[in-house]
Amino acid sequence: MRVKHKDSTSPDASALVELVAVAKTGDTLDGLLKRTELPAEVRAAAIRALSSEFNPKELRPGHEVVVRSDEQEGEPKELVLTIDAGVKILVTLDDIASIQRIEPDLIAQEHATTFELNSSLYASLKNADAPTRFATDLSLMLNPLVPFNRAFKGGEVFNILWHEYLLPDEREAKPPAIKYVRIQMPERVIELVRSSDSDNHARIYENGELVRTLVIPVEEGQISSAFGPREHPVFGNVRQHTGVDYAAQRGAPVSAVAAGEVIFMGRRKGYGRVIDIEYSAGVVGRYAHLEDFQPNLTTGSIVSTGEIIGSVGSTGTTTGPNLHYEILRNGRPMDPLFGSRTVLSSLTPPIGPEQSDLQGMRYTFSQTLMD
Ligand SMILES: [Zn+2]
Known about the structure:
Layout: E1 2-5, E2 16-22, H1 29-34, H2 40-50, E3 64-70, E4 76-82, E5 88-92, E6 99-102, E7 107-116, H3 121-127, H4 134-142, E8 157-166, E9 172-184, E10 189-193, E11 201-206, E12 209-215, E13 222-225, E14 228-231, E15 238-241, E16 244-247, E17 253-255, E18 260-268, E19 272-280, E20 283-293, E21 302-303, E22 308-312, E23 322-329, E24 332-334, H5 341-347, H6 354-370
Bound molecules: zinc ion.
The site of zinc ion has 5 residues, from loops.
């Protein structure tokens, strides 16, 4: 597709011509750029520049490249690669070192629903126009406190408040995130609160009492795989999954779940880029598949709870960007969410605004439901 485009940012510039190419299955970045008629040496330079912000192996169908060239001389001026979630990478071709990542403005929308369970949770969510992935998200967050395979007899009432994130063109920018859930069961009420964006805790209440605090090392990250035996996504066989995976966008900040000392930073087989933090004698948190380490962090650094230590990536053996988080106790992995309460509660003492959080979320839920 060839369209004329008047460059509005520089009024004295001559008209630019745009060439657009959209990635297809099996495309390489070079193959995609070839379709924009860029000469081989410009393509090579563009790929080198792009690689600092984008792994060419992660090109997916639908990613789009636009090359803008001078109408008179035909000389390529700039290239824009649009990748997932509307993120754009701009390369200025007459000054190849200049590369800029442009994040889209996301629109956050609050939604609320309430329903009585009278079929599977999946079907009930679908009926209520709520994201069906919450069936999995909730079972991962609440199991074994609420064993989803046998806890429900029908008639339980669910209240759910969640956020959806849209791009300016209304496409989904990232997966919807649960903020508040209330499950009214015959014998008890379970509530889950994941409140402000600055707070990386999810709190679970039973009959209004805080019973568990989950610390989430990636803001807005969703648990995508729990601790325990599972079919390995890369090798196919059943292996012990030694941690918890949080699916998140590449580059999303990873923060320390608890304070401690960095005792290892570097690469480990399978884990890719990894940081080990010793929280207390014999208790180590491991953060794996990182894209980058936080600058200035070194072995021996002391980090505090919530401090940013790196960013989400897909280094090591992974199928896509995620944080693999594990806790080792005397060298042996334990369940970071439901392992020894003694160890976990010493990492995240149940202090903080947990009661006001709960009140606030109940209020937000009822307000959103009425809107
Ligand atoms: Zn994992």
